[in-house]
Write a structure and sequence with these properties.
It is a single chain. By secondary structure, this protein is an alpha/beta fold. The protein folds into four domains: about 1-145 and about 320-350, Quinone Oxidoreductase, Chain A, domain 1 (Alpha-Beta Complex), CATH 3.90.180.10; about 150-270, Rossmann fold (3-Layer(aba) Sandwich); about 375-495, 3-Layer(aba) Sandwich (Rossmann fold); about 500-650 and about 660-695, Dihydrodipicolinate Reductase, domain 2. A nine-stranded mixed β-sheet has the order 31-30-29-28-22-27-26-23-32, with helices on one face. Strands 3, 5, 6, 7, 8, 15 and 16 form a seven-stranded mixed β-sheet that branches. A six-stranded parallel β-sheet has the order 11-10-9-12-13-14, sandwiched between helices. β17 (about 375-380), α14 (about 385-395) and β18 form a beta-alpha-beta unit. The longest helix is centred in the last third of the chain and has 17 residues, at about 545-560. The two termini are about 50 Å apart.
Length: about 700
Amino acid sequence: MKQLVVEKNNPEPILWETSIPKPGPGEILIQNHYSVVSTGTEISTIESANKSVSEKMQNSSNIEKGLELLENEGVRAVWNAVFPKNILPIQLGYSSCGKIIEIGKDVKNFHIGDMVVSNGSHAEFVVVNQNLCSRIPSETNEKEAAYTVLGSIALHGLRLSETSLGSKVVVVGLGIVGQLVCRLGEAQGSEVFGIDPDEMRRADNQNYYASIDDLPIDEADTVIITAASESNEPIEAATKIARNKAKIVVVGDIPLNISRNEFYYKELELVVSKSYGPGRYDKQYEVLGNDYPIEYVRWTENRNFEAFLKLLSQKQISIKDLITKEVEFTESPEIYNSFSSEEKPLSILLRYDLKTEPKIQFEKNEIILENNKKIKVGVIGAGNFASSTIIPILKELKRSCQILGVASSGGLSSEALAKSFKIKNKYQTEDEIFESDEIDAVFVLTQHFNHAELVIRGINSGKAVYVEKPLAINVDSITKIEEAMYNAEDPKIFLGFNRRFSNASMFIKEKLNASPANALNFRFSVPKLERDHWTNIKEIGGGRIVGEAIHAIDLGTYFFDSLPQSISSYSPIDKESDEALDNQVFININYANGSHAAIQYFSDTNNKLSKERLEIHGSDNSFIVEDFKLLRYLIGPDDKSKVFSDGKGHKQAIETFLSYVKNEVPNPFTWLEIKSVSLAGIYAQNYMNSGSQKSIF
């Protein structure tokens, strides 16, 4: 399919050919019929994309982060932190309409064939969560319906103004959102006046003026600013025209250098509107699809969609005259040149070709088999970890493997990644990768919630699977994987527990073969993450114990040659939310041979600390490792140190996996190891502060 994007450091929007995205749980795949180009917002997006890395680094917080990363992890870490974020093109557009052609699991109230609006981008096909689309009433004009998301931004701003019948409303900025605010205000019975210096935007409307000096009123009940400007003039104009105790609502992107005296003497109220309403940027709402109860949150972003559509269907507002022109989607890159002209269009409607039925699968090219022993690889997942760590290693190991396909749920990120690493992306979707007879092994590098599903598909298709930890985020999924393995002829699963493959770990393991250890202590000092970061959302990431601290559980299994038997975890309780803080966790593990591991997972430590510190003790010997680079080992009377430069074992783990697929070495993991470590991580996450040891089996 085609998608309109702007590449980094390239001011000209282009059409990218990407795979059709696949809807996940709670998501809907829509074939777009129309989408709206909002000139102001998209100009800002293009300008942002063309800021160089050096310009962005001028931000003081970015400089501090960069220096800290340089000091702790070196130049490569700084490069990896910047590079992945700059290879992915930015998608343009956020207001569209079309037909549902596929629905994901757990989708409610929508069916294939429904006509809906969404915040989907300019693309032939888009995937959105069910909370971010609404069904179009049958009597509604499709072209007008495409403006629903823009209309919801205007509607939310108007709601925040708390105006009603007879209120005097002044709208500063008559771009497309400003025009919609005016029409919605008039529909509710308010007396509405618009201000914009652009004569074309004012047109012949008698209530639109060039400045506040021309207004026929002295005081406004509310001022709604929809302008986008680097100037402070909009807020200054608003304070002058607002009456005492009036409300100023900021919808547009402007500086907020307010005059305290103006606000003090008039007792003005300032409100900044957040896009299309409650639910925006809340992952519980927009990703997991959890709605807000209507009795507590009357107007969510989705309910704003529905309200705007109802106004259109009942002909209470009409917006056909706001469409400057209609353009074929295939010609869309050319229209952006007109944005810098004096006759800048108010809004442009993109029309999509609907003559041919969509093909969810790409047709495969003829395969020419190569006469070599390279492992043919498919990669599923194109996030930062894939781009900064795994794919560079696979490219480095080009004598042993060849990447034939990179797929992601969104399509765009995988194509950007393939282009960046010069990969001829022969297989562009998950289905193609699993169905290809040519691909030998699949790397699963997606968000954690679908690891189990993809592992099972890999097993069922006869592929060797390298899955980044965790294997699964719930017990039921592990049971399903075990069933798939039982029914498969020769299942091959390899976990991304790379720490055990680091040179530091293997050096220690060799010493322990002669003198076993029985105690392990592992301290993580990790960066803080926002509460709504995907790894913290249980349904998506499973939590940080399952996603990261589980490395230490596996290391205990590796060093002790024994399986975890029971586990307990404890954490301080947040007094405000009454929730356990899973970024400050103490984990205790008892192993079958009597050994013990203590794990501390902290994010409130000083950033000068090493990120990971490992101590192993037993047989009168001790090993102390900092970040798998610096090793101090005390064996008998000897006190020695050793330095390792190879990192945390990612490359060695992948090399071992490739050798395993070639049947050159056995799998270093037994299924019982994989299962018990995975269960231990899940139990530590789920039974935190239960007050007892949870048995693994």
